[in-house]
From TrEMBL:
InterPro entries referenced in this protein's UniProt entry, alphabetically: DNA/RNA_pol_sf (IPR043502), Rev_trsase/Diguanyl_cyclase (IPR043128), Viral_Replic_Matur_Polypro (IPR051320)
Name of the molecule in the record: Uncharacterized protein
């Protein structure tokens, strides 16, 4: 195995990788990915909804209660279901979009502090 030094990064405080911003203490979402969420309108068909849910699912670890919010949106992607954006589904979509834009960070726990799971 060979390493290309041109492609390597050394001694960085922050690194962009696979749509995330990785630092020594946290993991965040890349800002240009969040901008894509803001620019996209509410999906008007199953294919658009599946695409949007796929994007959101990639960052699900950053979103509190993602499964609960996305449940009704996943239901309308089923082949036997007629695609209909109800008020509940529009609100769920907007909550997911808003949560993504609030720059949620995952922090590395401080193992010297007592905490319970």
């Amino acid at each position: 195995m060979k390493i290309s030094l041109k492609k390597c990064n050394f001694v960085f405080e922050e690194l962009k990788a696979l749509g995330h911003i990785v630092s020594g203490l946290s993991l965040g979402i890349e800002k240009n990915k969040v901008a894509e969420v803001l620019l996209n309108p509410i999906p008007q068909n199953k294919k658009g909804m599946m695409s949007s849910l796929g994007f959101s699912s990639y960052y699900r670890q950053h979103l509190k209660d993602f499964e609960i919010l996305a449940k009704s949106l996943h239901r309308i992607c089923d082949q036997q279901t007629v695609f209909a954006m109800t008020q509940e589904r529009i609100e769920a979509y907007e909550k997911i979009s808003k949560a993504l834009t609030e720059e949620p960070l995952l922090l590395i726990p401080d193992w010297n502090i007592h905490f319970q799971l």
